Amino acid sequence: MSQSSLWWILAGCLVGLELLSGTFYLLMLALGAGAGALLAHAGFPLTAQIVAAAVVGGGAVTSWYLRMRGRGTTATTASANPDALDIGQTVHVSHWSAERTAHVRYRGTEWQARFQGDGHPESGSYRIAAVDANQLILEKV
User: Fold this and answer.
1) Which one of 31, 36, 64, 84 is most buried, by most CB atoms within 10 A?
2) For 78-82, which contacts have Cβ atoms below 8 Å and span 24 or more sequence positions?
3) pLDDT tens string for the chain (141 positions)?
4) Which residues are CB-contacts of 93 (< 8 A; sequence separation ≥ 6)?
5) Residue 9, SS3?
6) H or E element at residue 13
7) Which 8-state DSSP code applies to residue 127?
8) Looking only at Cα atoms, what is the longest distance across the chain?
C-alpha cells in the first residue's frame, strides 16, 4: 500500500471520529493528513509529509481555536450543548403541582418540568427556556 493511501485512510478515520465526537478540531487534523497525502503523491520523502501534516493540521487547529476564543466560546457544534436543540420548543402541561413542577411528554418520553416565572402556573402550552440535567425549565408561551 502506498504512503498516500495511508494518509488518505488516516484522513478518513479522522473525519469519521469527528462525526462520532462532534469536535470540529478533528476535521482540522484531517486537513493536515490530506496535506501529507498530497506531498506523498508528489513524491516527497516521509519526513516532509509528516512535517507538512503537522504544520497544516496544527496551524488549522490553532487558528480555529483562536477564532472561537475571540467569540467567547470554544464550543463549535450543537453536540457541545445538546440541550440547545430543545430550547424554544413547546410542550403542553395538563397539571401543575403545588411545588410548581409537572410531568410532561416530550420527545416520546416523560420529563420532569419546573415553572420559571412568578405566580402559580396554569395548564396550557409552555416554551422550554432551559434544560437542567433531566428537568425542563418552562416559561409561559
Assistant:
1) 36
2) 78/22, 79/21, 79/22, 80/22
3) 899 999 999 999 999 998 888 778 899 999 999 999 999 999 999 999 999 999 999 999 999 888 877 665 444 444 556 657 788 899 999 999 988 999 999 888 889 999 988 888 999 999 998 888 788 999 988
4) 102, 104, 113, 121, 123, 124, 125, 126, 138
5) helix
6) helix 3-21
7) E
8) 74
With b for 16 or more beta-carbon neighbours within 10 A and e for fewer, the 27-65 pattern comes to: bbbbbbbbbbbbbbeeeeeeeebeebbeebbeebbeebe
Kindly report the pTM of this predicted structure: 0.51
